[in-house]
């Protein structure tokens, strides 16, 4: 497979880990997370932990995260990159968040149950169905009481619906804007944009340049990119098929109304694009 793009796709497994998942590049992850976190939890340094966590017993379910890391002051961060819409992604997010909570438990009788904060960050290449008509890209979710007051501030879910981010380079005003722009536009860029001249982005573009990959990295990226494109094609085909089915169902409704009103079969066929045989079958159904 020939890779035409100059820069990697961060929504591939390889691309996401290449940018954010290694010790030499953790300054990229720190800078990105600090655009999302409140001032009292800004990260100075972090350490990566194994991204697979097991329950207390063999029968417990296992969770595998994209990235799992911890700040110097003890906050836990799960960072998930989700390429495809998943019916129960929010449920999965809650399930995953229980692991870094439970692993803080101390096996001693005088443990007072004090916990460090846990954040789950989901970078989504899709839009939640219930939010499709909302322009909001960022969703910041905490447990609240009946007065809409934060009941517990140590568990936070942050979701970025990337398809909704449509700012141009000229519209980029904040570091948050710049990070979302580069994550969404990176594979389509041929050079580093003028608005992204900060040192952190200089490093990102150097790491992301496919021409700098070793032969082994290039082979791994090609395989990861193929998997991403295959998945995207499956999703796009399913969406197109659903649109066709929805349109035909709509035309069936139009045809039934035409039959009920006594319109000739030929007229209904011209209006709906259905054959006269299909329309006659609808009459008999």
Kindly describe this structure:
The protein has 2 domains: 13-213, no CATH class; 214-285, no CATH class. The strands form 2 sheets. It has a 6-stranded mixed β-sheet with strand order 1-4-5-6-8-7, sandwiched between helices. It has a two-stranded antiparallel ribbon with strand order 2-3. 24% of the residues are buried. The chain is built from 8 helices and 8 strands. By secondary structure, the protein is of the alpha/beta class. The chain has helices spanning 13-20, 26-34, 89-102, 175-185, 199-208, 215-260, 265-272, 276-284; strands at 46-48, 52-53, 63-64, 67-71, 76-82, 118-124, 138-144, 150-161. The model has no long low-confidence stretch (mean pLDDT 86).
Architecture blueprint of SSEs:
Blueprint: H1 13-20, H2 26-34, E1 46-48, E2 52-53, E3 63-64, E4 67-71, E5 76-82, H3 89-102, E6 118-124, E7 138-144, E8 150-161, H4 175-185, H5 199-208, H6 215-260, H7 265-272, H8 276-284
Parallel strand pairs: 5-6, 6-8
Antiparallel strand pairs: 1-4, 2-3, 4-5, 7-8
Helix pairs in contact: 6-7
């Amino acid at each position: 497979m020939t890779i035409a793009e100059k820069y990697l796709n961060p929504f591939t497994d390889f691309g996401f880990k290449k940018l954010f998942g290694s010790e030499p590049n953790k300054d990229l992850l720190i800078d990105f997370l600090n655009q999302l976190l409140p001032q009292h939890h800004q990260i100075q340094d972090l350490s990566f932990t194994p991204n697979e966590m097991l329950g207390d017993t063999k029968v417990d379910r296992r969770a595998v995260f994209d990235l799992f890391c911890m700040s110097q002051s003890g906050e836990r961060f799960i960072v998930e990159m989700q390429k495809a819409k998943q019916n129960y992604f929010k449920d999965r997010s809650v399930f995953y968040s229980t692991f870094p909570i439970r692993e803080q438990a101390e096996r001693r009788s005088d443990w007072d149950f004090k916990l460090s904060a846990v954040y789950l960050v989901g970078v989504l290449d899709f839009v939640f169905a219930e939010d499709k008509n909302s322009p909001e890209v960022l969703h910041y979710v905490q447990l609240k009481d009946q007065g809409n007051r934060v009941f517990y501030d140590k568990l936070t879910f942050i979701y970025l619906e990337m398809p909704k981010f449509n700012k141009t380079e000229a519209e980029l005003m904040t570091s948050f804007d710049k990070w979302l722009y580069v994550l969404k536009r990176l594979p389509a860029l041929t050079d580093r944009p003028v608005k992204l001249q900060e040192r952190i982005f200089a490093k990102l573009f150097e790491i992301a340049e496919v021409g700098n990959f070793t032969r082994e990295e290039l082979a791994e990226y090609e395989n990861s990119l193929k998997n991403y494109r295959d998945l995207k094609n499956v999703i796009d085909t399913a969406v197109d098929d659903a649109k066709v089915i929805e349109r035909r169902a709509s035309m069936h409704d139009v045809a039934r109304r035409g039959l009920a009103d006594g319109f000739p079969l030929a007229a209904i066929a011209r209006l709906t694009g259905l054959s006269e045989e299909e329309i006659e079958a609808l009459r008999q159904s």
